[in-house]
Amino acid sequence: MTVRARGPARFGFVTAVCFGYAFLYVPIVLLVLYSFNDSRLVTVWGGFSTRWYVALFENETLLRAALRSLQVAVISASLATVVGLAAGLALVRLSGIRRALLMACFGSLLVMPDVLIGLSMLLLFVNLDQLVGWPGRGLTTVALAHLTFASAYVAVVVRARLLQADASIEEAARDLGARPGQAFWLVTVPLIRPALISGWLLAFTLSLDDLVVASFVSGPGSSTLPMVIYSSVRLGVTPEVNALATLLILAVTLGIISAGLINRWVRRSEG
Asked: Whole-model pTM?
């Protein structure tokens, strides 16, 4: 009787998995398809056309917002990688109350709602601007806010890699005459390079995708791409937004493939 029930149960499991993936990816496929729609109505197919891609590249508002988002994402991801590296090392090498406090600080950023992070960063920047006249509200505040929460994710990735790495290799380098800084850069950093690359990509994605925190800390003339898209979608989805989303999907796909190839090359070089 158990053998007879195994077939229907497996069929139900496969059906549920297929339905789940279809629920996630069919809308994305339709979005890409309708980005080549000649009709101005996004729900009516009017024939194949690339006119909305041409219109997208003539839309200065979207292009400027995309450039701002890329600038903020690159800067915040690079700084978050440095801060996350330092925090990951501290989480592994410190002990006692100091490690517990540091873990609580970075762990709270992982579970705190974006609304609270955005509001707290807004209050911080407003008070700093009143006290010292810096930083105001603009791309700088957006980058600092993204750096704050993205560094926590990088720290978690780096910490996980450091826990798997063999600490005796760095100790052996010191015994052979290397200074602590040399042992760190020549031994530890190559060991955790895949984690640093993954952390940077994760921080870059989080910054590029953020809407809530940026809405709190941005100022006039510093709207990021998600903010511009959200403002335009509130008035109705346009074919230009579909074209932009298709290009973002292409960029993310190429990024994932590139990251996989880089990690594969690193593993081969280390092996």
From this structure: 0.82
